Amino acid sequence: MTYEIIFLGTGGGRFTTITQKRRTAGIRIIGDSLNLHLDPGPGALVYSVSSGLDPRKINAIMVSHCHPDHYNDAEVLIEAMTGGATRKRGVLVASKSVLSGGSVCEPSISKYHQQMPSQLVEAIPGVRFSIANLNVQAIQARHSDPDTVGFIFETKEFGAFAYTSDTEYFENIGRLYRGVRLLMLCVLRPAGQSWKGHMTTLDAIKIIEEAQPEQAIITHLGMQMILAGPEKEAKYISERTGIPTIAAKDDMRISFGESIELKTDKSVLGLDKFF
To answer: Which segments of the chain have a pLDDT < 50?
Structure first.
């Protein structure tokens, strides 16, 4: 069975969240015995329902850090996952800041909701754990929430895919993702518009050159990126790195298996068809 990666939202940052120029609903990952919601920002519940993805079928929720565009709908999804808090079920994985608070924030998920899942994992860099048939590793990030982590998802059949979460470039970050086949990068801003703690197109180029994935996808797009044209920025990344790169769109679906393909309403297309 292949894995389906569904971009329920591809927006990030304060102004994209406020205006909803792009949804901020996060990513759903579905596989055999797996139904995982990654970084459920504002709209995660509503767009799950409108996209035909019953939130009651979720069996794992993962939150990379303590900013609202990543955690906002986590509590209501926990309630859905646990049958309206009637039974302990599923896995909650979250950064230290989300679970316990940190130097820049209070806990983002209440103790009440943290008690609902059957398993709770504090995601600190280097920690490894399993969810259904995935082996997962939390990866270092550098962001305004210092407890932020990215994730590598290792499948038994098809190798690995990964998600960087919000991070700025730092030396050898790309090597942390070396060996993944598909790399999803949170690229908030276009080239030439740097913002501390976040990634620009130029940062993404450096990371992709170090990681050398088969395919790359840029997502979590800020307002300046949206105005600049994410497709244009993705094309520039492809030209500079030689790695096929596309800009995610709301409700875009990727099939991850022996091949990595973009699913449409009528067919499944290889990502190389877009270059």
So the answer is: 266-269, 272-275
Distance CA 154, CA 88 (A): 26
CATH of the domain at 244: 3.60.15.10
What is the number of domains present in the chain?
1
Other CB atoms within 10 Å distance of the CB of residue 202: 20
Range of the domain at 155: 3-274
C-beta separation of 95 from 65 below 8 A: yes
| 35 SS3 class | strand
How many degrees, rounded to 5, is the angle at CA 30 between CA 71 and CA 21? Answer: 45
Q: Rounded CA gap, 268 and 47, in Å?
A: 22
Task: Identify the burial level of 48 via C-beta atoms within 10 angstroms of its C-beta, where 0-12 means exposed, 13-18 middle and 19 or more buried.
Answer: buried
* Residues contacting residue 5 through CB under 8 Å, at least 6 positions apart: 27, 28, 29, 161, 182, 184, 253, 254, 255, 256
Asked if residues 6 and 158 have their Cβ atoms less than 8 Å apart, the reply is no
The pTM score is 0.94
Q: What are the pLDDT digits (tens) for 67-123?
A: 999 999 999 999 999 999 999 999 999 999 999 999 999 999 999 999 999 999 999
Tell me the residue type at 21: K
